[in-house]
Amino acid sequence: MANRLLGVISALPEEFAHLSDQSGEAEKIGGLAFWRGRIAGRDAVFVESGAGKVNAGVATSLLLDRFGCRALMLCGVAGGLDPALGVGDVVVGVSHTQHDFGIHRQYGFVTIQPGSRPSRDSDWAPGYPVSEDVVARLRDAVRGLVLEPLPEAVDAGQRTPSIHFGTILTGDSFINSDSARQRLHAEFGAYAVEMEGGAVAQVARRWDEDIAVVNVRCLSDLASAESHLDFRAFLPVAARSASLVAHRLAPVI
Predict the structure, then answer these.
(1) Whole-prediction pTM value?
(2) pLDDT per residue over 182-191, tens digit each?
(3) Mean pLDDT (the chain, rounded)
(4) What share of the chain is helix, strand, coil (3-state, %, to 5)?
(5) Largest alpha-carbon pair distance within the chain?
(6) DSSP-derived pairing of the beta strands 108-111 and 102-105
(7) Alpha carbon distance 188, 67 (integer Å)
(8) Three-state DSSP state, 222
(9) Which residue in 15, 89, 196, 230 is the catalytic one?
(10) Is the CA virtual torsion 91, 209, 189, 53 positive or negative?
């Protein structure tokens, strides 16, 4: 757990704003800047990967290979899929699925596990679940944590966000569609959708099944037709809320 070097990944600079002061000397590899620091008293290596699965996969490989990280945490924002959730809620992933990897068949798209070969009878059921032991530690770590109420400037109503544990989807597209949101929630029962976590989980699983991948996402929008407007307005606030949860989780990963 805490004696393993932690790799911390965010896609955007706004998502990193409250995680590290970036005061250490950066090391550039493959066009990415990595720097050593601490989060919640724990030694870590931080990287801003850029958006998307390939960027996240490159960053993850370097954290594991060049820096010897054996635990990983993503922190940032996501689009909400579950209609029971609202802007500002934080989702901690218990499983990660790449919703856009699969087979186009006559009756529709079938999602499969990246790298699997159904034609050779390999297990193609999609998803990278987080171990029950890790999830239990994460739940204990945030028990009693109360998030800050949403500021009036966000214009999302007067509500205090809450923390949830559920499946997070990953795909190389920003969901800006009500019909896409409804389809993804109906098919996977997922809570949120973003563009990096499933790729990080895939690389980590290939490296070592014992590498924990913890994904902390604050809902900056509801993956709807208005998402492009909500995302810009709420990104800084959502990034701060995600970081508050990340600081509580870092010591137990």
Answers:
(1) 0.91
(2) 999 999 999 9
(3) 89
(4) 30, 30, 40
(5) 55
(6) antiparallel
(7) 34
(8) coil
(9) 15
(10) positive
As beta bridge partners, residue 36 has 45
- pLDDT score of 21: 64
The 3-state DSSP class for residue 101 equals coil
Q: How far is Cα 120 from Cα 140, in angstroms, rounded to an integer?
A: 41
Q: Which of 48, 89, 221, 230 is catalytic?
A: 221
Of the candidates 2, 104, 16, the one whose C-alpha atom is nearest the C-alpha of residue 44 is 2
Give the contacts of 47 (CB within 8 A, at least 6 positions apart): 7, 8, 9, 10, 32, 33, 34, 59, 62, 63
* Amino acid letter for position 59: A
Burial of 28 (C-beta count, 10 Å sphere; 0-12/13-18/19+): exposed
* pLDDT for res 6: 97
Residues 210-229: b if buried by 16+ CB within 10 A, e if exposed: ebbbbbbbbbbbbbbeebee
pLDDT in tens, 39-59: 999 999 999 999 999 999 999
Q: Is 221 a catalytic residue?
A: yes
Q: Which amino acid is located at 179 in the chain?
A: S
Q: What is the pLDDT of residue 22?
A: 63
pLDDT score of 220 more than 70: yes
- Band of pLDDT at residue 14, cut at 50, 70 and 90: confident
**Residue 15 bears catalytic tag:** yes
For 105, the enclosing helix (H) or strand (E) is strand 102-105
Tokens read off for 9:
């990944």
Sole residue written with tokens 């990963």 = 253
